[in-house]
Design brief:
Layout (H helix, E strand, L loop, with lengths): L1 H19 L36 H11 L12 H4 L52 H5 L8 H9 L2 H11 L6 H13 L7 H6 L7 H13 L14 E2 L15 H4 L8 E2 L21 H10 L19 H12 L4 H4 L11
Antiparallel strand pairs: 1-2
């Protein structure tokens, strides 16, 4: 009997183990709820309004996967999400300048991504004038993703996963650059950040503390001519007196226009979520907001095309700087950075 039991155990063991094994995880995209373009009260009309790119859940989901897809780079190691991380409001945590394939570095700090439907142009120098073609620049930049868009299309077309996603989004599995960029524009264009404490204050839903209110009043007086409410930028190009880096020697908007009047000018960044997006300036030279304000009080260089509003600096006392920084912290939108619709679908 013992021998029979032994044989029975040997026979039953693989059956029992096979029953106990967990089925392999089936990767399904998270549902993307509330996919409409929202224009908060008091905001201007967005530049990009999706008339020619109707929003659908499956196109948004495809754009989300593409944003985090490393196949977009030449060695399949870098995605858009590598340099635009959701916990930093889609900036690049603690990296002064962008890091691309093969550990190569660029010349500029990776800008944050939110409210981009309101941007008339993209990149620090405005070199891209439409959200639907914006991804092409980093994909083909030799020190960022270093890939050819035609090869990206080939790689995606060879992927069963992407053939299925394109079919769900567009009715057939044909991968085209237009479809890619439509979907990525939906993903990025719907990244709305409008639920900070500042926003609730403006909607009369929450009060600022006394120090936050002092900082806000100082901000309105000293900073808002460039960082215009409610988007906290006017998206114009200015020379803010930052010394020319001997390493990068970045000529700014001049690189695009070749107009002498654009030398050393860069797009005014939005200050929304600014507490999360360090380091600061176009080349990430400042690690803290304190250093930024110190620049405007006593660090401005009298360069070619210096913005006229900065010729004498911005007078701020140490206490006023502290108050402004406390106010700037009210611009952090914790709901936005926690929104799973914009997180990496490969880790949900």
């Amino acid at each position: 009997m013992k021998l029979v039991h032994s044989f029975a155990f040997l026979f039953l063991t693989p059956v029992l183990f096979s029953c106990l094994q967990v089925d392999p995880k089936i990767e399904m995209p998270l549902p993307a709820d509330h996919l409409i373009q929202t224009i908060p009260e008091g905001w201007p009309q967005p530049v990009y309004q999706f008339e020619n790119n109707p929003i659908t859940e499956n196109r948004f989901i495809l754009g989300r996967y593409l944003f985090y897809e490393r196949l977009l780079s030449s060695n399949n190691t870098i995605s858009c999400g590598s340099c635009h991380q959701n916990f930093t409001a889609f900036a690049n945590a603690d990296h002064a300048v962008s890091h691309g394939i093969n550990n190569l570095t660029g010349k500029r700090n990776s800008p944050s991504i939110f409210n981009v439907a309101w941007h008339p142009a993209f990149m620090h120098d405005g070199g891209i004038n439409h959200i639907e073609v914006q991804p092409l620049a980093p994909i083909q930049n030799p020190v960022e993703m270093g890939e050819k868009i035609t090869h990206v299309v080939e790689k995606l077309q060879a992927s069963e996963k992407y053939r299925n996603l394109f079919t769900l989004a567009y009715g057939d599995d044909s991968v085209t650059t237009q479809r890619m960029f439509w979907s990525m524009a939906q993903f990025m264009g719907l990244m709305l950040s409008s639920e900070s404490k500042y926003d609730r204050f403006k909607r009369h839903e929450e009060e600022l503390t006394a120090q936050e209110l002092r900082g806000y009043n100082q901000f309105v007086e000293k900073c808002s001519s460039c960082h215009k409410e409610p988007l906290m930028s006017d998206f114009k190009y200015r020379n803010n007196g930052v010394a020319i880096s001997p390493i990068y020697q970045d000529s700014g908007r001049y690189r695009i226009t070749k107009q002498p009047g654009d030398l050393y000018k860069f797009k005014t960044p939005s200050l929304r979520n600014i507490a999360l997006t360090k380091p600061y300036m176009h080349d990430g030279r400042y690690a803290t907001l304190e250093q930024c304000l110190d620049h405007y009080t006593n660090g401005i260089k009298n360069l070619t095309n210096l913005d006229p509003s900065l010729t004498t600096g911005i007078p701020l006392s140490p206490e006023q700087k502290k108050d402004i920084i406390v106010f700037l912290n009210t611009l952090t939108d914790f709901n936005f950075i926690a929104d799973k619709r914009f997180s990496d679908p490969n880790y949900n």
